[in-house]
Design goal:
The protein is mainly alpha-helical. It has helices at about 1-15, 55-60, 75-85, 90-100, 120-125, 130-135, 140-145, 155-165, 175-180, 190-200, 210-215, 220-240, 285-300, 300-315, 320-330, 335-345, 350-365, 370-385, 395-405, 415-425; strands spanning about 245, 250. α13 crosses α17, α14 (about 300-315) runs antiparallel to α15 and α17 runs antiparallel to α20 (about 415-425). The protein is globular and about 60 Å long. The relative contact order is 0.08.
């Protein structure tokens, strides 16, 4: 009863400080979730379906909570100085991913940009759903979704939310100028990143147990991995078609594979990918490479078609923006059918083993020729080994795989391929 009265008083306060038109999009801020009887418990509560210490886990261990503070670092100040912009903590291009950057009219009285990437950045603006989420007895997940809570357990939903910053869009992406000024290049693989986030700092953000899967009908790791690849591919193609992401005759340089230019001049350690002329500027196709490797196990003819379309995209890159936009539009039309076939299906032990073999076999054909593709392959192999029931943490070959990725300047595609070949020989058939 007291909790109900507290929420009523909070909603009355919000209504007094925002217009009716703003209320449906109201972001209430992380402080709204921080009560010790909500998500601010100092320790997990075993008697409840959720742990109720999520706010404490986020504030102490989740890198998202530090996203805004990082804009006030010396490194961010140096990047802003090189770019010739004002303080990074006031720059919309930085705030759009380092905070919940919503219009002032949509901010509740406890909302603060300084909180960084908080609860509502992923779970959605809370005004409409917070009361039922908190106080229904019992409150089902479906009841929470109806007023607007985001269904992050669904692979495609999570992919769209996470990729908005981790892969980017025409409205927010790490440009080549930002990277040249010192911003890290973007790397993204949804399942690996989801699990690293869920267990960041050695504290579980939520329990991925049988109860969670029953309540939320969550997607499995394979579907999450594939949904992330497809969303990354879609956003890359959308950027390629965007007027904003072009630099004269060429696309924005951040769309290229960094390692087609930034590579050691000792060419004995470098392989050009199949069908690409030596010295070509190469579109960043790492998501497409992994999708084609997965399709080898699911639909070999469509894998061949995807590789042909990706090669066409690479050739179009050298022909100027009109050709690139046409090739990107054509390839974009292939993705919905792939999404339907790859994400919606169930993946049993046989399918997971087949996917693992296909991803490993692609290495023998030279399909991971550089550091960007190798990163994706290593994360995929680790996930698929785990999903196939093979212990990976003590596996020396997997340790060697990631040791080979510690320094991109020392990466050797041939050595990396040999490690994958040894894993393939030891994996069950």
């Amino acid at each position: 009863m007291l909790k109900t009265l507290a929420w009523i008083l909070l909603l009355v306060l919000i209504a007094a400080t925002a217009s009716a038109a703003d209320l449906p999009a109201g972001h209430l801020g992380v402080a709204t979730c921080a009560s010790s009887v909500c998500h601010g418990s100092a320790r997990p509560l075993p008697a409840t379906a959720v742990q109720q210490n999520e706010y404490v886990t986020w504030s102490h261990f989740d890198p998202h909570s530090d996203a805004y503070r990082s804009l006030r670092s010396e490194k961010s100040a140096a990047i802003a100085g090189r770019l010739g912009i004002g303080p990074a903590e006031r720059e919309p291009a930085c705030l759009s991913c380092h905070s919940e950057y919503v219009e002032p009219a949509s901010r509740g009285p406890r909302f603060q940009l300084e909180d960084g990437v908080g609860c509502e950045a992923c779970h959605g603006a809370a005004f409409n759903w917070i009361a039922s989420h908190d106080d229904r007895t019992p409150s089902t997940h479906v009841e929470n979704l109806e007023p607007g809570l985001v269904a992050l357990e669904k692979a495609e939903v999570r992919a769209a939310i996470c990729a908005a910053c981790h892969a980017g869009s025409a409205d927010r992406f790490a440009s080549h100028a930002m990277m040249a000024a010192g911003h890290p290049r973007l790397v993204f693989e949804l399942d690996t990143y989801s699990e690293l986030w869920r267990t960041s700092g050695g504290r579980e953000h939520y329990r991925a147990d049988a109860d969670y899967r029953q309540r939320k009908s969550s997607s499995g790791s394979v579907a999450i991995w594939l949904a992330g690849l497809l969303e990354n591919a879609r956003r890359t193609l959308d950027l390629a078609r965007s007027e904003k992401a072009s630099s004269g005759m060429l696309p924005e340089f951040s769309l290229f594979n960094c390692y087609s230019c930034h590579r050691s001049m000792r060419l004995r350690r470098f392989r050009d990918p199949p069908g690409v002329a030596p010295g070509s500027l190469r579109f960043n196709d790492s998501a497409f490479v992994m999708l084609a490797a997965a399709l080898d196990a699911l639909d070999a003819p469509r894998a061949a078609q995807l590789r042909a379309s990706t090669s066409g995209l690479q050739r179009a890159t050298a022909q100027g923006m009109p050709a690139l936009r046409a090739a990107a539009s054509a390839l974009l039309q292939e993705l919905p059918a792939l999404r339907l076939d790859m994400v919606a299906r169930e993946y049993g032990p046989a399918e997971r083993s087949a996917l693992l073999r296909s991803v490993l076999a692609a290495a023998e054909r030279g399909e991971y020729p550089d550091y960007a593709a190798a990163e994706q392959a290593a994360m995929a192999v680790t996930m698929l080994l785990a999903e196939s029931g093979i212990a990976v943490h003590s596996d020396p070959e997997v340790e060697a795989l990631f040791a080979d990725l510690r320094d991109d300047e020392q990466f050797d595609a041939g050595r990396f391929g040999r490690i994958l070949a040894r894993i393939r020989q030891s994996a069950p058939h």
